[in-house]
Amino acid sequence: MYKPTIGLEIHIQLMTETKIFCGCSTEFARVPNTNICPVCIGLPGALPVLNEKVVEYGVKLGIALKASINRFSSFYRKNYFYPDLPKGYQITQYAIPIAKGGYLEIGPAHQNRAGSQKKKIRIEKAHIEEDSGKSIHMGDITESEFSLIDFNRSGIPLLEIVTLPDIETPDEAYDFLILLRSIVRYIGVSMGDMEKGAMRCDVNISVSKDETMGTKVEIKNLNSFRSVKRALEYEIERQIGALKKGERIVQETRHFDEKEDTTKPMRTKEELNDYRYFPEPDLPPLVISDEFIENIKNTIPELPNTKEERYIKEFEISSDYARTIAYHPKLAEYFENIVKYVGIKMAKDVANFIMVDLSAYLNETKKEIDKIDFTKEKFKELLDLIDNKTISRNIAKEVINESLRTGKTPSEIVSKKGCTQITDEDGIKKLVIEVLNENETQVKQYLSGETKVIGFLVGQTMKKSKGKANPELVNRILYNELENLRK
Ligand SMILES: [Zn+2]
Question: Is 424 helix (H, G, I), strand (E, B) or coil?
Answer without folding.
Answer: coil
